DNA sequence: CGTACCATTGAACCGAATCAAACGGGGTGG
DNA sequence: CCACCCCGTTTGATTCGGTTCAATGGTACG
């Protein structure tokens, strides 16, 4: 059952037998033959702290990453959709740094860590893997700033726009999408409560930015959402930039 | 002027001519001869987005990392003390992902990225560098959870305990330390306002947990602070764990 | 058809932000 | 040396966004 639609976005598409890619660079022979498994909603692909044994490109479905801090505080740190790869750990970590939980019954490939390492010898492939990791790190930083200094409406608008962008990258044309995650998950990701998320969604809908019913959601006014995200009203306030004393992209001397 | 006290904690001590280390593994010859520079308070070691050219082990002084999001939101993401290395970018990034600003006049070494790469060929050294990077990533995650789901007092207690731990690792014996960063910086890191930070410090002092005057600070009751951090009263409330639906270290099946 | 879970909505409360002074220390210039 | 100013900090009064507590409604599933 090779070549699911998500293969076309997969990190491994150039080295994977499952994916039929037109552009097949001469150097890269398709040496990867991943196995497939399905994970039931609520089950874990892997758990934080366990040794890294494999990575999991999603074929169909979605997942959340959950981090549990040393003191037992748990928080969702991200969502993954089909085409994303779960379990990629930066810095050659030997243990998973988060847990990955399926949001719905999910089909994925299983690429052993040995196979991954083997293919990492190929420079272009290695670069693309590292680029994905860097992108993930950037994502977490954006989330940090969002939670740390944006208001609830902005954070939620950010998430909706992000989900929409991802959905469109996967072929979604109109702005209608089905949220795989619960309000609680969204709230956890954004550092809010589920009530606030629910209220905010209703408010967005009442202002004509979106329409929601349960987990069916449609973006009606992307620009409006972007305006909320950027905090150009008409939601709440707080001005960007100009915070900590000396930190601006000023033109003081700097070594690099 | 080699071998500052901070050398004994430096990541590069085993390969650096400046550092006099007793245990000198046979394989690693001391081939690193870093140059030294001083950076004035408020100046940048390097700026986010610039190509990575060098890393900067701190000899004397301190710095803050500042991240600026695509939309212009700026936030402090961490503090570095003497012995720490600034500019280590994970995933072979070609540009700095944050800016590093000196909190005071700071002396540091300059290790070119080429020199770093050369030494990364040495497996034990490489592992220690990767370990530092992983530690930094973990730190940012803890910060994310702190900002996302802990209350102000807990966050501040966390920071104070962390600063104290770092200070003690550097030889500090009693709990007295001098904060190099402003209230604004602390507030930015913790996702609060400077007024809240100031008030909280006063409150901690009035309860006998610490004593503060301006930037002179002394920890009086570490256990008390730890209790505040862990949220065991006697400050505010909110119970840990048990958040997002299915995510607990339960014993559901998982692949790894 | 009943049960369980997720989502919505309302009312009251509270923590932290905001607005607004006053204070303190360190530096500069008279 | 002292007066003055600047900037970071402290403290107070007030507002407000988001949480908490609570009840109802909707949907899926056994």
Automatic annotation (TrEMBL), chains A, B:
Q: Identify the residues that the record assigns to the HTH crp-type domain, covering every copy.
A: 150-223
Alphabetical keyword list: DNA-binding, Transcription, Transcription regulation
Transcription among keywords = yes
Q: Which Pfam families match?
A: cNMP_binding, HTH_Crp_2
MF terms (GO), sorted A to Z: DNA binding; DNA-binding transcription factor activity
**Gene Ontology CC terms, in alphabetical order:** cytosol
Q: By its UniProt entry, which SUPFAM superfamilies does this protein fall under?
A: cAMP-binding domain-like (SSF51206), Winged helix' DNA-binding domain (SSF46785)
Q: What is this protein called?
A: HTH crp-type domain-containing protein
Upper lineage is:
Bacteria, Pseudomonadati, Pseudomonadota, Betaproteobacteria, Burkholderiales
């Amino acid at each position: 059952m090779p070549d699911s639609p998500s293969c076309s976005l997969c990190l491994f598409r150039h080295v994977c037998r499952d994916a039929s890619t037109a552009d097949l660079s001469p150097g890269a022979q398709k040496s990867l033959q991943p196995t497939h498994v399905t994970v039931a909603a609520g089950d874990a692909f892997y758990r934080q702290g366990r040794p890294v044994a494999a990575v999991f490109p999603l074929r169909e479905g979605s997942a959340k990453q959950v981090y549990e801090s040393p003191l037992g505080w748990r928080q969702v740190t991200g969502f993954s959709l089909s085409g994303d790869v779960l379990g990629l750990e930066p810095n050659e970590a030997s243990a998973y740094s988060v847990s990955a939980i399926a949001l719905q019954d999910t089909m994925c490939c299983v690429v052993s860590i040995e196979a991954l390492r083997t293919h990492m010898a190929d420079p272009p492939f290695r670069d693309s893997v590292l680029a994905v990791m860097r992108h993930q790190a950037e994502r977490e930083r954006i989330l940090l700033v969002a939670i740390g200094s944006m208001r609830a409406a902005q954070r939620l608008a950010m998430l909706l726009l992000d989900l929409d962008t991802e959905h469109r990258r996967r072929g979604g044309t109109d702005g209608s999408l089905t949220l795989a995650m619960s309000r609680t998950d969204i709230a956890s990701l954004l550092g809010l409560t589920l009530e606030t998320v629910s209220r905010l969604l209703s408010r967005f809908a009442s202002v004509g930015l979106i329409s929601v019913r349960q987990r069916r959601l449609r973006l009606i006014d992307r620009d409006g959402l972007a305006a909320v995200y950027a905090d150009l009203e008409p939601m709440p306030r707080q001005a960007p930039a100009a915070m900590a004393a000396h930190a601006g992209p000023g033109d003081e001397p700097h070594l690099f």
